[in-house]
Amino acid sequence: MPDMNILMGVGNTLRNDDGAGIYLAENFSKNGWISLVCGTTPENFTGIVRRENTKILVIVDAADMGLSPGEFRIIPEDMIEYTGFDTHIMDLKNLINFLRDITKEIILVGIQPKDIDFGECISPEVMTGIKLLTKALYTDPHNIQKTRI
């Protein structure tokens, strides 16, 4: 079975910009890639990551990084903290620790939200960031590594 790349869109579409990863995953399509709309339970999709012999796993989630809304960055693994509880069932640090043994490379991308209040709208600034991130992923997922936090 050939290696596949997987995009996991993580977030909560009921909290406005927290749905950025979901929106990106819903609209991402590229040969050699599987796009997974994971919502708040990315751990439910780990079987697919294992089964597909994943080469590169890109996880996209809204993250408050103190940037301008819509800006995105690679989040180095050592900067991810155990939160115990966040908007997801399993925190991303535990998820990445679990996935490390079943995929060759993991890239976590945070996109700065503007508004995570209850609602179902993605702000124009975050939508622009999603489009730029999508373009970078279509070109080469390693291109976005130039913009680390």
Describe the structure.
This protein has 149 residues and is α/β, with parallel strands linked by helices. It has one domain: Rossmann fold. It is built from 4 helices and 5 strands. The protein has a 5-stranded mixed β-sheet with strand order 2-1-3-5-4. The longest helix has 16 residues, at 124-139. The radius of gyration is 14 Å and the shape is globular. This is Hydrogenase maturation peptidase HycI. GO terms for molecular function: aspartic-type endopeptidase activity; enzyme activator activity.
List descriptors.
149 residues; alpha/beta; Pept_A31_hyd_mat_HycI; 4 helices; five-stranded mixed beta sheet; Rossmann fold
Radius of gyration: 14 Å
Tell me what the CATH architecture is.
Answer: 3-Layer(aba) Sandwich
Largest sheet: 5 strands, mixed
The helix count comes to 4
- End-to-end Cα distance: 35 Å
CATH class identity: Alpha Beta
Count of domain modules: 1
The overall strand count is 5
Low-confidence parts, pLDDT < 50 over ≥5 residues?
83-88
Helical fraction: 10-25%
CATH superfamily: HybD-like
Q: What is the strand content?
A: 15-25%
Compressed to H and E, one letter per element, the order equals EHEHEEHEH
| Overall pLDDT score | 89
As for the CATH topology, it is: Rossmann fold
Biggest sheet, spatial arrangement of strands: 2-1-3-5-4
- Going by helix content, strand content and strand pairing, the class is alpha/beta
Task: Give the overall silhouette.
Answer: globular
